[in-house]
Amino acid sequence: MYLKAFAYGVVGDLGLQWFNKNTDKGKDWGLNTYFSQWTPTQAVFNAGILTTAVLFTHNLIHEPTPESLFLWGAVWDVWFRTQRTMTSLDGYYSHLNFIESILWAGFPASLMAFF
Fold first, then answer.
1. How far apart are CA 53 and CA 11, in angstroms?
2. What's the pTM value of the predicted model, to 2 decimals?
């Protein structure tokens, strides 16, 4: 289960890297700072570890459902935003308001329930 969550993060990050590099819209998301600070391999591992952490913290409490995984993705997003856990994401967080970043964290997290 955790290996699938890690793989999910890796695939999602590879998609974001491609989108950020190959489209004009991707450059507007505030991720340039993040992707310039981390190598592609480091960024992939960051994403894999984070998705695994979301699933792990969730499983400490109960079985995964899309709604509960959404909530945990949102909790982790708020933590990263307010505590500035990764300063390389400052551009991303300054580009998106609180609700938008929660949606962009919660929705993909909720999809892990379908593994």
1. 16
2. 0.72
